[in-house]
Design goal:
Strand 2 and strand 3 form a beta hairpin. The strands form two sheets. The chain has a five-stranded mixed beta barrel. The longest helix has 4 residues. With 126 residues, it is mostly beta strands. The chain has a single domain, classed as Structural Genomics Hypothetical 15.5 Kd Protein In mrcA-pckA Intergenic Region, Chain A (Roll). The protein is elongated and about 60 Å long. The protein contains two helices and nine strands; from the N terminus they run E-E-E-E-E-H-E-E-E-H-E.
């Protein structure tokens, strides 16, 4: 099934119904979420309008962590997802999104980027 955005559904305030005046367009098409999980690294490349590209991270086993004390980035291995504010069920499935807290070898790390659009995992030690 295709995901489409910007299609009016429902009723007008007057009680009348919206009628679709034209067919669906390619630029209104959406995508399913990437649902990034823990595992060996898999990245998909998605074509966008004009020459744009998005790198969709499907799975990753490591994260780039910024240590505030030493002011350096280190690459550490992921263990599991501890907390995810986007959806509590993502914790059970180990799905990584922006803002989630993951357990690593160095301690808990908060993810600061969007892995479904950047293609990498970046985070800060909590």
């Amino acid at each position: 099934m295709v995901v489409i955005h910007k299609i009016l559904k429902g009723k007008k305030p007057s009680g009348g119904s919206f009628k679709q005046a034209r067919s669906k367009r390619k630029f209104e098409r959406g995508n399913l979420p990437s649902l990034t999980s823990i595992g060996s690294k898999v990245v998909k490349v998605l074509k966008m309008k004009s020459a744009g590209k998005k790198l969709r991270l499907e799975r990753s086993e490591c994260v780039n962590v910024f240590d505030k004390k030493s002011k350096k980035f280190i690459k550490v291995n992921l263990v599991r997802v501890v907390d995810n504010t986007a959806n509590r069920n993502f914790v059970r499935a180990n799905i990584i999104t922006k803002g989630c807290v993951v357990e690593t070898d160095k301690g808990n790390v908060k993810i600061t980027n969007r892995p479904g659009q950047d293609g990498v995992l970046n985070g800060v030690l909590v």
